[in-house]
Specification:
CATH superfamily of the largest domain: Periplasmic binding protein-like II
Largest sheet: 5 strands, mixed
Oligomer: single chain
Helix content: 25-40%
Radius of gyration: 20 Å
Number of domains: 3
Structural class: alpha/beta
Shape: globular
Distance between the termini: 43 Å
Strand content: 25-35%
Number of strands: 12
Order of helices and strands: HHHEEHEHEHEHEEHEEHEHEE
Length: 258
């Protein structure tokens, strides 16, 4: 259980529905249901009671949610030793730390992970200062229109094609380009909430994906390009992906009044 999971159950309570909360959080409904079940198993309590109209907290669930909200509200207090509120930043899954460092404009910050929809909602609602969103480059015009409607400014950080990460000992380590046929011979690693086929390894937030890749030469992970030199430091190889989708990343924040 981590802070991200606490945010998840707070959102489920707010929506009154696991399905609606999954949509708001930009993750898959089955994965959100599994996270809740895992939390219930870990804590030995039932957090939500399922009804015909959705879900409602149990008595024990209400107590947990009370503590979760208190913990989340105190996140902003981290770093107040300097007398300044910590900067609140949301990043997409797997965003490189080297690039995240460039977004910190003051000495303290609280960084969390969120999908595009949740990040836009958080920034427009004032619970986050800035966020990085990731979306298919072909949807840039629609995304800019959405940001404008929400009163947000968006600035391009990067545009790229997805790559394949494999172990330095992988059968694909030295190929100039990987295609779907070659990847079908390996086991894919996917993040929780992403679409996946059978035979994949699904990992939750916080799991060390580079460590898995380097230890399991028969696996691969489709990823945005890592900073130059980082794959080698991690014992990995970064390979172009044939027919890869193109994505854009924007940093977003509230538009200043004119």
């Amino acid at each position: 259980m981590n802070l991200t999971h606490l945010r998840y159950i707070v959102e489920v309570e707010r929506c009154g529905s696991v399905t609606k909360a999954a949509q708001a959080l930009y993750i898959g409904q089955p994965n959100l249901s599994k996270i809740i079940k895992d939390m219930e198993s870990e804590l030995g309590i039932e957090i939500f009671r399922r009804t015909a109209r959705g879900v409602i907290p149990t008595d024990e669930g209400r107590q947990l949610l009370k503590h979760a909200k208190a913990a989340l509200s105190q996140i902003d207090e981290i770093g107040r030793l300097s007398g300044k509120r910590a900067m609140r930043i949301m990043l997409p899954p797997g965003f490189p730390g080297e690039r995240a460092a460039g977004l910190i404009k003051q000495g303290t910050a609280v960084i969390s992970e969120a999908g595009t929809e949740a990040a836009i909602k958080a920034v427009s609602g004032g619970s986050c200062d800035i966020a990085v969103i990731r979306f298919p480059a072909a949807r840039e015009k629609l995304t800019k229109a959405l940001l404008s409607d929400k009163g947000l400014n968006g600035r391009r950080l990067a545009e790229y094609e997805l790559t394949v990460l494999v172990s330095a000992d992988s059968p694909l380590a030295d190929v100039p380009q990987a295609d779907k046929k070659q990847l079908a011979e390996l086991t894919g690693i996917v993040r929780e909430g992403e679409s996946s086929g059978s035979g994949c390894i699904t990992v939750s937030a916080g799991v060390d994906i580079p460590g898995l890749l380097s230890s399991l030469p028969g696996t691969y992970f489709i990823s945005p390009p890592l900073p130059e030199g980082q794959p080698e430091r991690l014992g990995l190889r970064q390979i172009p992906l044939a027919g890869a989708d193109r994505f854009a990343e924007f940093v977003i924040e509230k538009a200043q009044p004119s």
